[in-house]
Amino acid sequence: MNSALKRFWLNLKGIFSPYPKGLKNFQRVFITLFLFLSITPIIVLTWISYYKYKNLIREDSLKQAHLYTYNAKHTIESYLNQLKNTVLLISEIYSFEELSNPKTLDYIFEQLKKKYEGLVDISVIGPDGIQIAYSGPFNLLGKDYSESFWYQKVLTRKVYISEVFLGYRNVPHFIIAVSQKLNGKQQYWVLRASIDKETLDRFLRRIKTDEVYNAFLINEKREVQSSILNLRFNQVYTKFEDLPYNEKEVILKELEVEDKYLVRSLVNIQDTPWFLVIDRYNYQHKPAWNLFLQDLITICTISIVLLIPMSIYLGIWLTRLVKKFEDEREAVLIKAEQTNRLASLGRLSAGVAHEINNPLAIINEKVGLIKDLLAKMEDIPYKDKLLKQIEGIKRAIERAKFITYQLLEFARKMSPKLDFVQINEVIEECVGFLEKEASYYNIRFEKKLQPDLPLVLADYGQMQQVFFNLINNAIDAIIEAKRQEGVIKIKTSQLNENFIEIVVQDNGIGMPPEMIKRVFEPFFTTKLEKEKKGTGLGLFITYEIIEKFGGTILVESEKNKETTFKILLPVKTDGGSFYEEKA
Amino acid sequence: MKKKPKVLVVDDEVDFGETLAERLELRGFDTKFAENIEEAHIFIEQGWIPDVILLDLKMPKIDGLKGVEIFKKSVPSACILMITGHGSVSAGIEGMKKGIYDYLIKPVDLEELIGKINECLKMKNKNNLKSKLDCEAS
Question: Which GO terms describe its cellular component (chain A) (predicted)?
Fold first, then answer.
């Protein structure tokens, strides 16, 4: 378990740390930016959805509260109107005298009681404000109402519905009273019906559903007129200063009461001193809202959780891609730089060769002439010595000529003799030539040559030079590494229909990366300084020859381990070779 | 007495050209040296028609390649050998296309040069014989 964790940690560390500082910064910036750019819209969208849906559901909640309150108001109004009209009708059908008769009044009371459950009593008050007839459970006959508030009101309004009050009976009730003119007189008598407060409570209980938290009645003075259904909030409902009154419209207000989100609606009951107050649960308590919130949070969380590893992965992937392109670009640049350098050097070599060749030709001719003339002369003093000196000059000219020829060869000025070359043959020849020398140092060859290797169009001699250089270098590298047993592996194969691949590998001293970069440069040598073995031109010439024939040469090496040279050469096809196309 | 083969050396390097001409003279050739194409034509105009022309590739004013074209018109019978210090393959190929017999790179080995001149002369004689036979036949 521990090792697995360690492995995971190393991998993670490896993901974030193998790049140079610039790329690491790029990776960090990309991941941060991608996270920001991808998460921000999700959060914004979630926020917008939240508010839009909240407003929608809130508006719906308010509409519902409005409608519900309006219906409840009509239910109460219709009951009171019915009772009010009945009392008015009785006062109009019967005369004051008839109703003053207790028997008639009792009869009417009994009939009304059957229909209106909350009716407590019915009575007739004469023009002087004294109750002259009464039918009901209390003993209120002869009571004087001339100073009562309600009595004053009914005389001016004809019909009056009172607030809930205690009165002479000392029991909460309200009254519906109508006044009628006495026949031929400017005096009024009053028919009064008392209704139990319980009747109002009954209506309110009927209004109460699961969605209603509370319902009750208040008067204009904002005093509670009915029972409060939810008694726990008694205190809360005693104050309504912040709620405006409107006689016709339903007033709505959102409020929070003890962690409950409510919509309070307030509406006047027509022709009464009462206002109906209903508290309904607001949208926050509705299942649709909870479900929506739950879904929204889930989607948002899942999106963010998925985006984080995705961003990291993308960052890593992109950085790798950038690194790859960067490496490739660097390789191309190095190659271009190298090619450019080599091309410049090639031009320089050609120039130098030309400039040296001309004076060299003059010296050659002059010396040749002296020699010719000396040969024609009879014995002169020091003739032999002079001829010997001339021969020395001639040898020096030959040496210089060889060098300029070499230079010209590097500059690709020498004419190659193109022919179909079997690379296996060239390798066998070179190995055969160097095998003996290699055996002195206990170096053996391992050859894997593809028997039907296609031919390439090249110069046989130059190909010999290439493999002679490579094998010679391999031998030197092994000698330098002081290996007990040296191995030079040579492999040829057809890479694809266009190229053959030749691999020369040794287990010699190897090269560090900075040396690999310069290995094909002219006059660069890895061989021991004291031995003065290398001219630094071997691999340069090899590189030039391979490039000339449309091939590529690559080197891989590790210090003190091994060096591998890979050569790709174009196969001669019917369509001609790279070299022919170039020429 | 056998007629000496005529060799015209054209090279802007006077030291080289003169010495080469002199050495060839010593080897039994009738040689003349010219510093440039115009000077070479003075000899031709005087009636000295070369069998072989040793022509330098790089010369001021008129270079060797242009010179080949001129000599092919003025002395069509002459065999031209190009000598160059530049060693340019493409120039050699270009020269071959224009009709030179071969090209050599400076500094030249006199024996090799004489060998090439003799090859040239053989080819020239063969051509002369052929054209003579052609004339007789016609």
Answer: plasma membrane
Question: What mean pLDDT, rounded, does chain B reach?
Answer: 87
Indicate if the alpha-carbon torsion angle A472, A477, A481, A486 is positive or negative. Answer: negative
For chain A, the structural domain boundaries read: 94-200, 416-582
Does position B137 have pLDDT exceeding 80, yes or no? no
Q: Please name every residue paired with A268 in a beta bridge, in sequence order, or none if there are none.
A: A275
Q: A416-582 — its CATH code? A: 3.30.565.10
Distance of CA A256 to the CA centre of its chain: 38
Nearest to B107 among A376, A397, A414 (CB): A397
Architecture of domain A94-200: 2-Layer Sandwich (3.30)
Radius of gyration for the alpha carbons in chain A, expressed in angstroms and rounded: 59
What pLDDT is attached to residue A578?
44
Mean pLDDT value across residues B114-134: 84
Interface check A372 vs B, CB under 8 A: yes
Does A362 sit within 8 Å of B15, measured CB to CB? yes
Distance CA A485, CA A479 (A): 10
List CB contacts (< 8 A) between B15 and chain A: 362, 365-366
CB pair distance less than 8 Å for B110 and A368: yes
From residue A14, alpha-carbon distances to A17, A299, A312, A366 in Å are: 5, 33, 14, 72
Beta bridge partners of A499: A570
Q: Dig out the tokens for A333 from the structure.
A: 């640049």
The segments of chain A whose pLDDT lies below 70 read: 1-20, 228-247, 335-347, 409-417, 522-537, 573-583
- The angle, 0 to 180 degrees and rounded to 10, between the axes of the packed helices A538-548 and A287-376 is 110
Condensed to tens digits (0 to 9), the pLDDT of residues A211-230 reads: 888 888 888 877 778 776 66
Task: Report the DSSP beta bridge partners of residue A494.
Answer: A500
Locus of tokens 């030959």: A398
- The ipTM estimated for the assembled molecules is 0.83
